[in-house]
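Handover notes (outgoing to incoming on-call)

Open items:
1. Agmatinase: sequence verified, structure written out, both below. Nothing else pending on this one.
2. Nothing else urgent.
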Amino acid sequence: MSLPAPDDPPDGPEIAIVGIGFDVGTHPSRIGARGGPGHIRQQSRLLRPHLADRGPLDLGGIVDWGDVRLTPGRLDSLLDDATPALAEVVASGAVPVVLGGDGTATFPVLRALAAAHGPLAVVHFDAHTDAYPDAPPGADAGAEPLTTATTFTRAVDEGLVDPARSIHLGVRGTTFQTEVCAHARRLGYAVRTTDELVALAPAELTDLLVTHTAGRPVHLSWDMDVFDPAAAPGVATPEWGGLSAREGLAFLRALEPLDIVGADVATVSPPHDLGGTTGLLAARVVLEIVHTLRAGRGARRA
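Agmatinase structure tokens:
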């Protein structure tokens, strides 16, 4: 959206858009989420800065921080390079809104935010929990414990999140393992399937999340596969039966009362994105998050 780069040194931005162009490169058929940040930026040129049904949005105080310099496919680079880069954003006083990247790109964001704010309440919209057991069937004995499927398992292990105040929303579809939702619940997370989510009105979701996250700063993690592939085909692992674009945007607007200290938008895969529709919808999600952050902070100050 032609946002400015930060000053050098950064001069107190309120919100920073940050790209983490990373995927682990182990998906059996869809590699490409590493190109997500640039793709979302490209499609954002089609957006206007004002949301007609929500009033004008002043984009002052928002910067595009650029992309973290790292090597896609190397987890050591993700953890060693992205964590301090995000810590720098947080230290500037800005709320990071991260463009992924696959689900592992969320992990260094959680590390940086938890170091500043303590254990987080995670509100995770995704077709998958990403809180699977450590070793999926058939995995090598020395398999890397951090994968796109275990991001939120590792986050509990490291004390980055408070699972009792965290929730996975929109879960559905096929899995390689049984009882994945049960495992997430054993870790302490709440889990709502897509059917349970769409049964809620946005105001009911607001009440649920305000109560569930009470007392904790919130990280919002929005995986684009929470949308139905009819709305967002260009994702790493599409699952039929997801949210429509209208439903997803309405649920985003229900998050204004939450104390959101960081957010990420994950798993846009440009090689699989027909006509750029997923990238454009992801850019709109980012704009909605920015508006939600602004509106929520304004309400709390009032």
